[in-house]
Amino acid sequence: MVATAAASAFFPVTSSSTSSAKASMMLSGGSDNLDARGIKPKSASSGGLQVKANAHAAPKINGTKVTTQTGNAKDEDSSHSPPPRTFINQLPDWGMLLAAITTIFLAAEKQWTNLDWKPRRPDMLVDPFGLGRIVHDGFIFRQNFGIRSYEIGADRTASIETLMNHLQETALNHVRSAGLLGDGFGATPEMSRRNLIWVVTRMQVLVDCYPSWGDIVEVDTWVGPSGKNGMRRDWLVRDFKTGQTLTRATSVWVMMNKKTRKLSKIPEEVRGEIEPYFIEHAAILEEDSRKLPKLDDSNADYICRGLTPRWSDLDVNQHVNNVKYIGWILQSAPISILESHELAGMTLEYRRECGRDCMLQSLAAVSVDCEGNSPEGGVECAHLLRLEGGAEIVRGRTEWRPKRTHNFRSMGQMTQIPAETT
Hints:
Layout: H1 2-10, H2 16-28, E1 60-61, E2 64-65, H3 73-79, H4 94-116, E3 133-135, E4 140-146, H5 160-177, H6 189-193, E5 196-207, E6 216-226, E7 230-239, E8 245-257, E9 263-264, H7 268-274, E10 302-307, H8 322-331, H9 335-340, E11 341-350, E12 360-368, E13 379-387, E14 392-402
Antiparallel strand pairs: 1-2, 3-4, 4-6, 5-8, 5-11, 6-7, 7-8, 8-9, 10-12, 11-14, 12-13, 13-14
């Protein structure tokens, strides 16, 4: 149909009315011998009987009256003759040609889309960059992340900072999806009215297996009470394809006044906002109750000095993001451990916030595990992040296991998310 339209644009077709007139002339033998009704009179010399036609009677065909053609047939034929052929009227119909080209282009584009852009792998059907959704009757928030090329380290696996950023992102999106996001960074409307913000006081993370570039991880997070004036937030990170547990983490959060920078109790109005989302369930990780040692120049094996926050290290609450502390802590770890071991777990206690004008030091003490709490060949390190004046920012403990030659995903264990509350 498109080809016909295109051809007709270049090759004009003679008018059908003209062709009909010419055919009529050929069949009737010309118009010179016709009378006014288009009937050829019979010659007198033919010897036949002459019949006088009734000029007032209308002719009938099969009993039906028909009208007769009047006027000069020669003049009518001349009025339907085509105009003289010139250069202008022999040009193609450009509108028809453009419509044909557009139709062909759209058909080719549709065919290309249907055949050549279908996903080749099932996991490409998953949107790893969505904002997540609420599951389990509104108590658990779930979000997927794809591991990007710039989020992996020298081991070709995601860095611990990448995993911690995923945890923080799901926590904030959980608050937003629940409709509790105010003007602050994860603060509810009642918190914003009272200039209150959340600050983390303790974080415990256990990494069973690190994802690699291109993997999709599924992060679940939920909240629960922690004492009278605290909130606990847990995370469970799994491989989207296999469901294997990759990371488990638990944390404790308290409120701080954004203007006075002092801790605050949870107001009843704020408690009324967040308590409907609490899950009465034990923490996903058993608390490491061992006391974190205090380090100083006398018992630290490694000291990294001169650490300063950059502008990009600050969050909207005008203090250093808690994920940045992890990078500073690991800067004091010896390179020999980083090359031969991978981080298996860590426990952090946040003592003080850090601003943009602070100068920090990172201290580390290394010890071979003597209590049998780490895998065979594991190493344990104590950490301290402090200001140059001596004030403590973060105390921590990290556990390291020997690097695996291959990424044995089968060694991970399956972890169930909390049961729904009634």
